[in-house]
Each structure stands twice: as C-alpha cells, then as structure tokens.
Amino acid sequence: AKNPLKVLVTGAAGQIGYALVPMIARGAMLGPDQPVIIHMLDISPAAEALNGVKMELVDASFPLLKGVVATTDVVEACNGVNIAVMVGGFPRKEGMERKDVMSKNVSIYKAQASALEKHAAPDCKVLVVANPANTNALILKEFAPSIPDKNITCLTRLDHNRALGQISEKLNVHVGDVKNVIIWGNHSSTQYPDANHATVNTVNGDKLVPDLVGDDKWLKTEFIATVQQRGAAIIKARKLSSALSAASSACDHIRDWVLGTPKGNWVSMGVYSDGSYGIPAGLIYSFPVTCDKGEWSIVQGLKIDEFSREKMDATAKELMEEKSLAYSCLN
Ligand code: NDP
Q1: Could you give the residue numbers annotated as active site?
Q2: Residue 26: what pLDDT?
Q3: Cα separation of 3 and 315, whole Å?
C-alpha cells in the first residue's frame, strides 16, 4: 500500500472547503489508491465550525482517509504537507475598495508563504484558489523563495471547465468529447476563454470547434462573456457562490498535475510566466499546459491571431497592475 500524502486545505471551514475535503477523502484529487491525511486550517472565529467538519469526516468513514488535523495554528497545519490548497482568504465585503481586499489578502499570503517554506515537504505543490488568486499566488511565491517557482500555481481550471461545458451545450456533444480550450491570464473578468484550438471528438475524428460552431461571432462574444460571468450567474441563482464546481475543479487541477494529462490533451493552469507567448515573465498567468511526472509545461507554438493577442495582453496588463498594487500594500 502507498504511504499517505498530506493535503493542506486552508479556509477549510468555508464553503469551498466544505465541498472539497470529502472529494479529497474519496480519492478525487490523488486517485482511488492513494491514502491521504487532511490538514485543515482556519482562523480562530471559525475553529468550532472547523471542528464540526472534522467530526463529519470521521463520521463518513472514508477508507482512504488516514487522519485529519483541524487547527488554527499555521505551523501545525503546514507541517510536512505534500499538497497545499489555499482557499482561505478575506472576502470582499460591501463598501470595501479593491485595495482594501488586496491589502488583507497579500498580508495573509505573505505570512502563509513563510510557514509553507519552513514546514511543508520540500517538493510541496501549491494551488491558490482564494481571490485575487493569481496575485495571491505571486505573493506566496515571492515570499517563499526556497519553494521552486514551478510548484506554485493558481486555479483557472474552473474557468476552463466552464468553457468546455458551454461548448458541449452549444454543439450538443458530451463534455468529455470536448478538449483543449484555453483560459489565458487572470482569474477575473479579464480572463480570455479561447476556443480557437479546441476540438470535439466525433465519429469522423477530431474536429476544430470553430469549424463546428460555424459562428465566429458566438465564440468572440457570448461564449467569452458567459464563461467570464458564470460565477456571478451562479451567485444570482443560488444566492451562494459556486463552491461545488470550484472544489471539483481544484481536484482536477491537482490530479492532472500529479498524475499527468492524457496524451493529446492540455488544461489551463495559472503558472509562473517564463515569457511564453510574449507574456511578461514574473507574473502568475493562466496558460495551456500539459503535465507529466508531476511537472507542467506550457504548450508551445500555438498560432495566436490578432483578436487573441489583444485579449491576452489586456489580461496581462491587469495582472501587472495587480502586482504593483499588491506591492504597494506590502510597503
Ligand atoms: P469560499 O470558500 O466561498 O471562498 C474562498 C475563496 O475562494 C474566496 O477568496 C473566493 O473568492 C475564492 N474563489 C475562487 N474561485 C471561486 C469560485 N469559483 N467560487 C467561489 N469562490 C471562489 O469562502 P468562505 O467565506 O465560505 O470561506 C473562506 C474561509 O476562509 C472561511 O472559513 C474563513 O474563516 C477563512 N479565512 C481564512 C483566513 C486566513 O487564512 N488567514 C482569512 C480570512 C478568512 P471571492 O471572495 O472572490 O468569492
């Protein structure tokens, strides 16, 4: 039998945390033969609720779950973890300026960077979910210099999956037959969902999505807007955020990163830019990536048209502005 892997979930008493921990305990994140020990961190006001979640995990008798740590102590939470899913963050409340939210979150991520650097397993893989996800991940990376750049990522897989879902509904095909959409850039309303290279597996082989849709306008307008605004649409419908799909796609992100992407498939991940596609190096930017043996690589050589170029640059520009705002909050 495999040794258990330790998975940290911060903000574990929150909505996404509550949806995520049972998925991890069922093997949705690391596979059906990988035992796990779940470390849950939250802040003191949430300690009692966190303990309730721990009680439920015990009650569910998950065969793969070899232990649960529920704590408000960041050192205990980070100790020896192999995977860290950072969901905890300060929510934007009514009347708060962007800068106020940013300031709260960058100081949280700066502190957690130090704890992870000192106490996590040396090869720990980090996924930031809490918003502003790309910039929180960047701050975490910069204040944990001994964690390799390649180990710090942010979640855009939910946006990626939403794009697959929209195409599957438009073309009336199964979502499992659609692949290779791309989310470029920031996990924000400037993200660019790109279906130019996406394909559908049909009885006559793989067909390009733009050819099947045959309506360039839909892909350039409604498709992009629906994916960008899906989170708001769910809040409107449910009066609560999209915690289920956020948790599910966090599992997809880690699973594909650790276990590899299927041959011929890529996925979207927010990763540290190396300057690919002319995106400034030193940003956490969502790219198409393939994963093999626990390492992601950016898919190279895709043809970028003028429409895409503009959208990719606009979301990069927003990330540069967020980065300088984040640094101005730290100073
Ligand atoms: P959620 O669990 O709903 O969301 C957590 C974070 O994920 C938020 O930053 C949220 O951003 C972000 N997020 C990213 N993608 C999505 C998505 N698709 N749908 C919804 N959220 C998304 O928030 P809760 O308030 O329920 O829980 C947060 C937990 O964090 C609480 O338990 C709280 O105690 C804890 N916390 C921890 C702190 C710390 O570690 N120091 C500080 C403050 C809180 P957005 O706000 O934009 O929706």
Answers
A1: 187
A2: 98
A3: 41
